Amino acid sequence: MFPLRRIRVIGDVAHVTNEQVAAVTARELRGNFFTVDLAQAREAFENCPGAHGQRAQAMARDRLEVRWKSTTAGALGPTAW
Asked: What is the DSSP string of 28-63?
């Protein structure tokens, strides 16, 4: 019931791909809208190379929103992960 169906990534996303977000999601996130551990989600995205100050927030009943910040804009290319 109430599975997370979409992850919206906003912010400095020039150096992150859909595949990278999908990999973190599949590997780290568990639960549904009501049970997903947002602190764990934030930490999972924060552990990505070049990421800094990520924020994860549950939105609506099927969406997770991640506010993406890069450590240094332009420091990493799209294949850095």
From this structure: H--SBTTT--HHHHHHHHHTSTTB-S-EEEEETTTE
The reported pLDDT for the residue numbered 71 is 65
- DSSP label at residue 3: B
Q: Domain 6-68: which topology?
A: Ubiquitin-like (UB roll) (3.10.20)
Structural domain spans, the chain: 6-68
CB atoms under 10 Å from CB of 15, counted, come to 23
48-64 tens-digit pLDDT = 776 777 788 877 778 88
Q: Which two tokens stand for residue 8?
A: 């919206």
Query: Is the confidence at residue 81, as pLDDT, over 70?
Result: no
